[in-house]
């Protein structure tokens, strides 16, 4: 619950503080490439940045004259603070892009101007007038964040507590264990994980009602005459909004830079800011082993994205051509996002075993397809909703059939949405860990599975090299 709450607060404060200015637009554009970085690579970057002997500690040590790293636990801390921070840094850009896509339809400048007439300052005015109408539009993606955060495996393996691990990590360990009894434990843990995630959603819904009841009178009473305190309050909110999101993006980008240094540094003693010995040995070793993982990852991504694109276009085109709505069918597409990933994939693996389907690249691609499809469909749905149908009417007056209109008119005009959907689908598929690990039974290596498998090795150079290969 902390992950979605903090992520949503960061995004709303940023939007309220910037309100579409040039700096805000530049930072918003920077969030797109950060969003494309896989969760595992971002977790590795954060670990290398904030570990006791990480880059941040080395910078402070050079200023204060430290000879030894500080004695604190960041990676695998028992309170899960590193895990929460890692999830927040990845989910905030996701919610930001969703919010930016929904904002143009809300008339935010008009709402803020109306609130200013009641005496509110700009940031407070945005939070009181725009945030309540924007929230329903990001509610479904926020539910997906809640479910993902409560059941994340790849980030938990890297940053989460280890003794004991999170429930999702322990579930995966039981599921892949060779003992029959472990499979029974995994089934029980899957049900418990489902209850935990649904409980988190239920608590969030109760939290929504409490906030809504407290929010309405606050927005209706207007600004108080004692404006000095209100100006200070608005200034603090503006400062937080301008600082938190850029800082979170900077953490990821600086961490990626640290991964680059680590991948080519064989000797990096504390508190040196850069390695003292440089070598490309890790890259040479990784490049000699990356062909099979890269081929598997690419084929799985292409198969899943192609299938998701074809099905999404079929459903949207059928809805556009007839009066029959596919909205109810489309709601089932979001099921993989609203059910814990480890529970959903475990169930599919059990069904595949009952159907005597052996672990294969095709089965893994089918699992990826289920998680890629919702994002591809949502991206194309926006393009279909904004499509100017007068182009189709003009083509039909010239004798064009529905098929010709689809291939010669609609698809070219939707090229931007198509490219966006394909790129988003590829990024999601290439970063998926659980479907590959469970449905492939560990026999279908990809860049993601190979990178996460190196967590226990403790070799920073090797981890940095494979994390960069995954991000590339």
TrEMBL record:
Highest taxon above the source species: Bacteria
Keywords: Cell membrane, Membrane, Transmembrane, Transmembrane helix, Transport
Listed CDD domains: TM_PBP2 (cd06261)
GO cellular component, one term: plasma membrane
Transmembrane segments: 6-28, 40-61, 81-103, 184-207, 239-261, 294-316, 328-351, 357-378, 415-434
Localization per record: Cell membrane
Residues annotated as domain ABC transmembrane type-1: 1-204, 294-472
Topology of this chain in the membrane: Multi-pass membrane protein
Gene3D superfamilies named among the record's database cross-references: MetI-like
A biological process term (GO) from this entry: transmembrane transport
Annotated protein name in UniProt: ABC transporter permease
């Amino acid at each position: 619950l902390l992950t979605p709450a903090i992520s949503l607060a960061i995004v709303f404060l940023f939007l309220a503080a910037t309100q579409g200015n040039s700096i805000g637009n530049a930072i918003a554009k920077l969030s797109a490439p950060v969003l494309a970085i896989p969760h595992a690579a971002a977790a590795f970057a954060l670990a290398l940045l904030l570990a006791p002997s990480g880059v941040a500690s080395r910078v402070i040590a050079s200023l204060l004259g430290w000879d030894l790293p500080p004695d604190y636990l960041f990676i695998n801390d028992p309170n899960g603070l590193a895990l929460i921070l890692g999830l927040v840094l990845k989910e905030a850009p996701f919610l930001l892009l969703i919010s930016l896509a929904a904002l143009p339809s809300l008339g935010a400048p008009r709402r803020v101007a109306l609130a200013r007439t009641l005496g509110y300052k700009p940031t407070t005015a945005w939070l009181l007038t725009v945030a309540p109408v924007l929230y329903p539009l990001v509610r479904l993606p926020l539910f997906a964040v809640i479910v993902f955060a409560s059941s994340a495996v790849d980030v938990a393996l890297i940053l989460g507590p280890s003794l004991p691990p999170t429930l999702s990590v322990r579930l995966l360990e039981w599921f892949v264990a060779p003992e029959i009894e472990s499979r029974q434990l995994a089934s029980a843990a899957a049900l418990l994980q489902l209850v935990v995630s649904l409980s988190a959603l239920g608590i969030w819904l109760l939290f929504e009602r409490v906030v809504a009841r407290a929010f309405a009178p606050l927005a209706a009473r207007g600004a108080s005459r004692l404006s000095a305190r209100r100006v200070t309050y608005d200034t603090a909110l503006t400062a937080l909004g301008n600082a938190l999101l850029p800082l979170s993006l900077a953490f990821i980008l600086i961490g990626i830079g640290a991964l680059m240094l680590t991948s080519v540094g064989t000797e990096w003693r504390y508190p040196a800011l850069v390695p003292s010995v440089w070598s490309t040995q890790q890259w040479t070793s990784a490049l000699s082993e990356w062909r099979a993982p890269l081929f598997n990852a690419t084929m799985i991504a292409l198969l899943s994205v192609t299938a998701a694109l074809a099905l999404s276009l079929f459903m949207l085109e059928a809805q556009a051509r007839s009066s029959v709505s596919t909205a109810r069918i489309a709601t089932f597409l979001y099921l993989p996002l609203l059910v814990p990933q480890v529970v959903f994939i475990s169930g599919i693996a059990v069904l595949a075993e009952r159907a005597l389907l052996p672990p294969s690249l095709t089965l893994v691609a089918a699992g990826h397809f289920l998680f890629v499809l919702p994002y591809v469909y949502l991206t194309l749905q926006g393009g279909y909703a904004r499509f100017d149908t007068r182009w189709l009417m003009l083509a039909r007056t010239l004798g064009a059939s529905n098929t010709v209109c689809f291939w010669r008119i609609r698809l070219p005009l939707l090229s931007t949405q198509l490219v966006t959907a394909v790129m988003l689908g590829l990024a999601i598929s290439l970063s998926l860990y659980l479907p590959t690990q469970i449905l492939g039974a560990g026999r279908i290596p990809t860049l993601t599975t190979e990178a996460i498998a190196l967590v226990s090795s403790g070799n920073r150079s090797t981890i940095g090299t494979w994390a960069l290969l995954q991000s590339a």
